[in-house]
């Protein structure tokens, strides 16, 4: 059962339990007996793969009010439920029913256990049994299994060339401040003379440059780098034939302006060349100071006969591994293709009065290409960009379009299309937008290059030039071959690529680059009756496993993402039902996840320390009923072949070519004679641990609520809400038909999907899947396996045939970690209900083995986002194991095991060494909240030393006990919708968080009986408190201010109050100042991520309940209601309509207030053992009800105010004590477990 059904059923069940008064009694002893449910091991139901000391939990239900557990007894057996052949705890006097540690003999690896709990309560006794299986408890338990994957391409760089590359030096022209150099072009050359008697025959070259390069051998172009951002992080590999004893190697390198300053930036060229001779010997050429360099580019610079007078020796800046580049350069696995270039193309447009400026109007371009005599067209590769956007058609069919974004011309788009016959028509709708300042004419141009491939393998290039036809009349159907364009004008040339105003700033993505996912298979026979079959697998990346043609489980995107150089997760599955007598087969397809990212990106996932090709390790453990056992393991007896997933990227999407499908590869009897032997791969460095967090699953399918065609040939499907996942697409058409699928949360003004990478985080692909049909004549289905997207809208381009897609063709899939629902809320306020539902959807959309910031743009485990969301995760969802896994991710992100955690975790190294105590506080607060909400003491014990080390580090870098942060109260209303700190003193929030961390560490030390540490933390906290008030408390105004604040800052004062920093005499004045500022802004908040969590609780707790409720009901900017009024179904990243992300959780933290104040559940002891219920009654609400599953069971409250007549219904689990504090009742009233109803009069 998934969250969407579970919420309705459980909430309904919780509601039904109300109405039984405290005075009712059950007379039958049998009816009075307690019962047990929710028997869990490590918070999981019947888990397989337990590799830690197990802890046992259960929930008691009793029809007798006030019942409580008196004792328990645990038994463990390998033979039967109720047995105790392994362990018997004896009777333990305790009322605690959760996370009880096993304390018997050491458990065995890969073993099935039964466990039984006997419970005695005041009402009687009861017993229940469950089961679990251990995982592989040590590295040796993996036995002879090996890491396997696909073999390295035979055309990859040889080992000695890679070694030489790593021993080469970064070189550049002599500069005044190396490694920095002015932006500009440089040329380098080196003449190689073969030793006497040696005849050079070939050369292989491994090369990169910061920022771009082209390389020539004896004047012949060999290849160049792509022009994507930070392409220097990926070396290129080329080969060249040699025919002379003297060879010239020449490189044209470009340094671009620093992206931050526009000025000088790091510049360098790094290469190694292996020259092979006819006798089989070889020699290596390194980049070093023996190369010549020039800051000007002579016409003969790359020719062997070139004049080298005036050239200078290159400067060797740093050896590989040093300088700003460190060891971030990844080596390729195959020969790089010569890059199609704009070098000979011209910018073209219609004839205008003041070129390159043109009116803000579209233009139509056409070019009919006729094949050379005797040749037949096969395909075309197209690079295209237009200032300011385009749609591309081939033979009347739309092939693709540009993203709808500012300065889209800076990123050229790449397309491929199959052709036939002897002619083809390229047609382009090209748009020019008005100048952003004047609203008048602006630069307009089209730049393209097309490589035509014939059936005989030869090629021909088509350039954008004056042979293209152009029309200012862009009529419907202009793209059709039947249109007569003989009267159209010839395009006007604005100059070759590089001309102003565009310069050489066009980057070319490589969205179609192939990195095919390997398919692996293994056949085996079973001849005896099976007792059990357990499959264990770990992967560098993702592993999609099938057995005998059906999925091994319903898990997807598995195993989970970790910092692979410190930890890898493995999964255990019960697969006995999948096996049959006789021949069986296992099939595996491997995806890249964060392990083998191929496209460049801001966070350096493509050059992470663990980076490599996907790999898998497998143990299938089979036990037979005769007591014998057998193992099938991953080794080089497995077969491998590249499959239909030609590219997968967790951020970019997937390219899937159905013609590569291997039907039946995962069934016995499949002919794999043409497959290769699996390669034994190097083991990743991380330790293998069982996956702790719940699995990621496909949890719901959605039907589009509409399908529109805003532009001819482009279809847009809209779904009911923003989700994370993908779509299942069904289509039929000719072979090699390309269907492009774009995903986005928002629409452009023309009704197309806003799917672009507006932050330019990724080099090639973003939120896009591509599906090439096999042309079977039947319906073909594509569903991704290795990437997920954030979306409410899906754009389909290239749909085959004349009939638009239907709802059955585009099925939305909702994919996230399968977190069970643990709470719910409903009230008389429709707005509060919608806000609550939107928060829960946002939380779920952001769990994919880590808590993420958003499922669309970054998918990163930002620590601040996770910290701010932890309490609402724990109130609503079964999230403790996910969060506990994330705490380990944070711990492992600390550089060299010391200092602060990274601001994203897991991390590639990008998020390390940041100065952001506000975000780093996640490492302190999340474990503490897990302990408070779930009673998990182990998480405190596991990480205490690291937490202590970090807090001491933070205190040590806080001069005079005043901290600072690079991440303050992020995205307050006045900041940019793309994000930013507010105009306020960031030291205030940083120091408040430092103080609160010290207080929490004191509490943790006390729990763990570390008395001396607790005393130290108390003293340190007191010192920070004193410094905070000395520096930031304004005695004149009576509230907190910082240096450089722009007016009153709500978050300064909210944090001071919420964290306990305000002197008691000033508390009410500070609270009143917040309420006054809210009022002065027209009942609006002015908080960002840090302050929003605390504004409603703080107002409510200090006499401003009406102000808090009014804020919660606000529907104008900035407010949550403003989002809802504008169609929000999830929380946004910013208060503004222009918010980048529409699926961000950190501004949705009003949810804490709903549970703790609106309904009034305030836990006053660990795991809700003691609770105070004190709802905030107000004229805004006539009823509210909620439930939340505590470690003791389901706690429910339902109150209704009927004209001052208040009725309260309580459902209290066994073991929980509740004090109810309601106006009109006098002193707080105590209740034990059971169902209770009371009424009273209130005056609002």
Automatic annotation (TrEMBL):
<dbReference type="InterPro" id="IPR008902">
    <property type="entry name" value="Rhamnosid_concanavalin"/>
</dbReference>
<feature type="domain" description="Bacterial alpha-L-rhamnosidase N-terminal">
    <location>
        <begin position="528"/>
        <end position="699"/>
    </location>
</feature>
<dbReference type="InterPro" id="IPR012341">
    <property type="entry name" value="6hp_glycosidase-like_sf"/>
</dbReference>
<feature type="domain" description="Alpha-L-rhamnosidase concanavalin-like">
    <location>
        <begin position="714"/>
        <end position="816"/>
    </location>
</feature>
<dbReference type="Pfam" id="PF05592">
    <property type="entry name" value="Bac_rhamnosid"/>
</dbReference>
<protein>
    <recommendedName>
        <fullName>alpha-L-rhamnosidase</fullName>
        <ecNumber>3.2.1.40</ecNumber>
    </recommendedName>
</protein>
<feature type="domain" description="Alpha-L-rhamnosidase C-terminal">
    <location>
        <begin position="1160"/>
        <end position="1230"/>
    </location>
</feature>
<keyword id="KW-0378">Hydrolase</keyword>
<dbReference type="InterPro" id="IPR013783">
    <property type="entry name" value="Ig-like_fold"/>
</dbReference>
<keyword id="KW-0732">Signal</keyword>
<dbReference type="InterPro" id="IPR035396">
    <property type="entry name" value="Bac_rhamnosid6H"/>
</dbReference>
<dbReference type="Pfam" id="PF17390">
    <property type="entry name" value="Bac_rhamnosid_C"/>
</dbReference>
<feature type="signal peptide">
    <location>
        <begin position="1"/>
        <end position="23"/>
    </location>
</feature>
<dbReference type="InterPro" id="IPR016007">
    <property type="entry name" value="Alpha_rhamnosid"/>
</dbReference>
<dbReference type="InterPro" id="IPR008928">
    <property type="entry name" value="6-hairpin_glycosidase_sf"/>
</dbReference>
<dbReference type="InterPro" id="IPR013737">
    <property type="entry name" value="Bac_rhamnosid_N"/>
</dbReference>
<dbReference type="InterPro" id="IPR035398">
    <property type="entry name" value="Bac_rhamnosid_C"/>
</dbReference>
<dbReference type="GO" id="GO:0005975">
    <property type="term" value="P:carbohydrate metabolic process"/>
</dbReference>
<dbReference type="GO" id="GO:0030596">
    <property type="term" value="F:alpha-L-rhamnosidase activity"/>
</dbReference>
<dbReference type="Pfam" id="PF17389">
    <property type="entry name" value="Bac_rhamnosid6H"/>
</dbReference>
<feature type="domain" description="Alpha-L-rhamnosidase six-hairpin glycosidase">
    <location>
        <begin position="823"/>
        <end position="1158"/>
    </location>
</feature>
<dbReference type="Pfam" id="PF08531">
    <property type="entry name" value="Bac_rhamnosid_N"/>
</dbReference>
<dbReference type="Pfam" id="PF25788">
    <property type="entry name" value="Ig_Rha78A_N"/>
</dbReference>
């Amino acid at each position: 059962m998934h969250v969407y059904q579970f919420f309705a059923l459980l909430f309904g069940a919780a509601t039904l339990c109300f109405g039984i008064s405290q005075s009712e009694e059950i007379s039958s002893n049998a009816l009075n007996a307690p019962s047990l449910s929710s028997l869990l091991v490590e918070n999981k139901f019947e888990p397989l793969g337990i590799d830690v000391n197990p802890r046992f939990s259960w929930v008691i239900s009793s029809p007798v009010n006030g019942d409580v557990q008196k004792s328990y007894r645990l038994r463990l057996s390998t033979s039967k439920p109720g047995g105790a052949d392994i362990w018997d705890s004896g009777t333990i006097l305790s009322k605690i029913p959760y996370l009880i540690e096993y304390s018997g003999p050491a458990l065995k690896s890969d073993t099935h256990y039964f466990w039984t709990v006997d419970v005695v309560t005041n009402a009687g006794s009861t017993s229940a049994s469950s089961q679990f299986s251990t995982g592989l408890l040590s590295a040796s338990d993996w036995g002879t299994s090996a890491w396997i994957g696909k073999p390295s391409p035979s055309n990859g760089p040889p080992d000695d060339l890679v070694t030489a590359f790593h021993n080469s030096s970064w070189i550049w022209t002599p500069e005044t401040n190396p490694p920095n150099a002015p932006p500009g072009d440089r040329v380098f050359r080196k003449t190689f003379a073969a030793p006497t008697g040696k005849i050079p025959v070939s050369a292989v070259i491994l090369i990169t440059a910061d920022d771009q390069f082209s390389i020539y051998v004896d004047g012949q172009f060999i290849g160049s780098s792509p022009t994507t951002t930070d392409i220097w992080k990926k070396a290129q590999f080329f080969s060249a034939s040699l025919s002379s004893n003297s060879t010239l190697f020449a490189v044209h390198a470009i340094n671009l302006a620093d992206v931050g300053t526009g000025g000088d930036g790091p510049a360098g060229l790094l290469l190694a060349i292996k020259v092979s001779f006819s006798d089989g010997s070889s020699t290596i050429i390194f980049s070093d100071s023996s190369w010549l360099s020039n800051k000007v580019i002579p016409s003969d610079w790359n020719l062997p006969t070139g004049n080298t007078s005036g050239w200078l020796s290159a400067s060797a800046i740093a050896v590989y591994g040093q300088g700003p580049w460190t060891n971030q350069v990844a080596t390729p696995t195959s020969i790089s293709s010569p890059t199609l270039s704009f070098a000979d193309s011209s910018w073209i447009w219609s004839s205008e009065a003041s070129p390159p400026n043109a009116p803000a109007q579209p233009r139509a371009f056409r070019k009919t290409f006729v094949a050379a005599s005797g040749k037949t067209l096969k395909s075309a590769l197209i690079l295209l960009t237009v200032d300011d956007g385009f749609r591309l058609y081939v033979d009347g069919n739309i092939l693709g379009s540009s993203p709808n974004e500012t300065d889209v011309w800076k990123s050229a788009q790449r397309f491929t299309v199959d052709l036939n016959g002897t002619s083809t028509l390229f047609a382009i709708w090209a748009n020019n937008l008005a100048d952003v300042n004047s609203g008048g004419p602006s630069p307009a141009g089209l730049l393209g290059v097309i490589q035509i491939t014939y059936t005989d393998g030869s090629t021909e290039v088509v350039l954008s030039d004056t042979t293209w036809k152009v029309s200012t009349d862009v009529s419907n159907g202009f793209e059709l071959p039947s249109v007569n364009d003989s009267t159209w004008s010839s395009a006007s040339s604005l100059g070759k690529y590089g001309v102003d105003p565009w310069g050489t700033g066009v980057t070319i993505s490589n969205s179609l680059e192939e990195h095919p996912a390997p398919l692996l298979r293994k056949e085996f026979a079973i001849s005896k009756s099976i007792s059990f079959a357990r499959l264990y697998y770990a992967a560098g990346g993702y592993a999609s496993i099938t057995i005998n043609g059906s999925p091994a489980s319903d898990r997807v995107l598995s195993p989970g993402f970790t910092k692979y150089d410190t930890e890898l997760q493995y999964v255990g599955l019960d697969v006995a039902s999948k096996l049959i007598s006789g021949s069986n087969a296992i099939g595996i397809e491997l995806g890249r996840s964060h392990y083998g990212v191929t496209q460049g990106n801001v966070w350096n996932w493509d050059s992470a320390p663990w980076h490599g090709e996907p790999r898998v390790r497998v143990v299938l453990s089979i036990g037979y009923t005769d007591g014998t056992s057998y193992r099938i393991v991953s080794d080089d007896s497995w077969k491998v072949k590249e499959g239909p997933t030609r590219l997968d990227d967790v951020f970019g999407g997937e390219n899937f070519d159905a013609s590569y499908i291997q039907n039946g590869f995962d069934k016995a009897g499949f002919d794999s004679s043409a497959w290769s032997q699996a390669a034994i791969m190097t083991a990743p460095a991380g330790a293998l641990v069982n996956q702790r967090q719940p699995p990621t699953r496909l949890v719901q399918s959605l039907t589009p609520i509409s399908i529109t065609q805003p532009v001819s040939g482009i279809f847009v499907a809209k779904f009911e809400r923003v989700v994370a996942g993908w779509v299942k697409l069904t289509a039929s058409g000719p072979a090699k038909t390309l269907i492009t699928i774009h995903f986005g949360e928002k629409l452009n003004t023309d009704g197309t999907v806003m799917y672009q990478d507006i932050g330019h985080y990724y080099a090639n692909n973003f939120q896009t899947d591509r599906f090439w049909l096999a042309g079977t004549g039947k319906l073909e289905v594509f569903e991704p396996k290795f990437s997920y997207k954030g979306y409410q809208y899906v754009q389909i381009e290239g749909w085959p045939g004349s009939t638009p897609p239907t709802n059955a063709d585009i099925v939305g899939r909702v994919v996230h970690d399968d977190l069970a629902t643990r709470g719910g809320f409903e009230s008389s306020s429709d707005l509060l209900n919608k806000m609550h539902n939107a928060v829960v959807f946002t939380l779920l959309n952001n769990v994919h083995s880590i808590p993420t910031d958003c499922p669309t743009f970054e998918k990163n485990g930002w620590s601040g986002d996770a910290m701010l969301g932890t309490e609402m995760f724990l109130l609503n969802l079964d999230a403790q194991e996910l969060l506990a896994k994330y705490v380990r991710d944070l711990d492992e992100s600390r550089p060299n095991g010391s200092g602060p955690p990274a601001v994203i975790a897991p991390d590639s190294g990008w998020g390390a060494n940041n100065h952001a105590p506000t975000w780093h506080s996640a490492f302190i607060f999340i474990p503490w909240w897990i302990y408070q909400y779930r009673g998990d003491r182990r998480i405190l014990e596991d990480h205490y030393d690291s937490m202590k080390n970090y807090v001491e580090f933070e205190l040590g870098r806080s001069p005079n006990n005043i901290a600072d942060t690079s991440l303050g109260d992020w995205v307050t209303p006045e900041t940019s919708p793309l994000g930013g700190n507010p105009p306020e003193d960031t030291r205030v929030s940083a120091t408040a968080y430092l103080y609160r961390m010290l207080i929490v560490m004191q509490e943790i030390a006390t729990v763990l009986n570390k008395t001396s540490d607790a005393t130290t933390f108390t003293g340190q906290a007191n010192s920070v408190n004193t410094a905070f008030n000395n520096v930031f408390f304004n005695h004149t105004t009576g509230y907190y201010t910082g240096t450089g604040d722009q007016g009153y800052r709500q978050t300064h004062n909210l944090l001071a109050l919420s964290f306990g920093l305000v002197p008691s005499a000033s508390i009410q004045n500070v609270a009143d100042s917040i309420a006054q500022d809210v009022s002065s802004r027209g009942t609006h908040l002015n908080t960002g991520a840090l302050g929003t969590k605390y504004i409603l609780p703080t107002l409510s707790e200090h006499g401003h309940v009406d102000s808090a409720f009014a804020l919660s009901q606000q529907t104008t900017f900035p407010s949550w209601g403003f989002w809802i009024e504008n169609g929000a179904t999830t929380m946004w990243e910013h208060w503004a309509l222009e918010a980048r992300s529409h699926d961000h959780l950190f501004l949705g933290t009003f949810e804490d207030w709903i549970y703790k104040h609106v309904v009034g559940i305030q836990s006053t002891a660990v795991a809700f053992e003691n609770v105070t219920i004190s709802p905030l009654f107000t004229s805004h609400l006539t009823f509210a009800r909620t439930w939340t599953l505590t470690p003791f069971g389901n706690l429910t409250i339902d109150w209704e105010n009927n004209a001052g007549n208040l009725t309260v219904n309580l459902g209290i689990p066994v073991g929980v004590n509740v004090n109810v504090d309601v106006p009109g009742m006098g002193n707080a009233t105590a209740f034990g477990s059971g169902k209770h109803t009371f009424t009273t009069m209130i005056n609002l």
